[in-house]
Design the sequence.
């Protein structure tokens, strides 16, 4: 008599394996210090309106004149679009050379990388979806 093997355990295991990349990708609270956001002023070097997250590169000059290039991960493009900030608008407003003040959750490993929470232009206008990158209340 042949033993019958249920497909249910195989489907369950397959679903778990398929979910692993999603967990690995969404490591904001593991990779970034959301409890200690930092605010700094810099100048936009590059901005990319791409999936899965927008990317902002900006230069920060310290008191000694040393320039450090920072990278900030932003919300997904569809979040920007829903808030009225499409690709053309964001690329125009965040053009290279634009002075910004940015609040971000810095990388835990000390590298000049972070998860953007708030971007403000020199004229005081907030750029992007308000609160989309805000760290949760902790």
Sequence:
């Amino acid at each position: 008599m042949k033993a019958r093997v249920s497909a249910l355990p195989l489907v369950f295991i397959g679903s778990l394996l398929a979910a692993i990349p999603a967990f690995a990708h969404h490591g904001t609270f593991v990779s970034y210090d959301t409890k200690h956001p930092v605010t700094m002023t810099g100048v936009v070097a590059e901005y990319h309106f791409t999936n899965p997250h927008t990317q902002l590169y900006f230069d920060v000059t310290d008191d000694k004149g040393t320039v450090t290039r920072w990278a900030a991960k932003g919300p997904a493009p569809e979040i920007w679009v829903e808030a009225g900030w499409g690709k053309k608008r964001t690329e125009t407003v965040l053009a290279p050379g634009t002075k910004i003040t940015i609040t971000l959750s810095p990388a835990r490993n000390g590298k000049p990388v972070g998860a953007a929470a708030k971007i403000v232009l020199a004229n005081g206008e907030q750029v992007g979806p308000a609160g989309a990158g805000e760290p949760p209340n902790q």
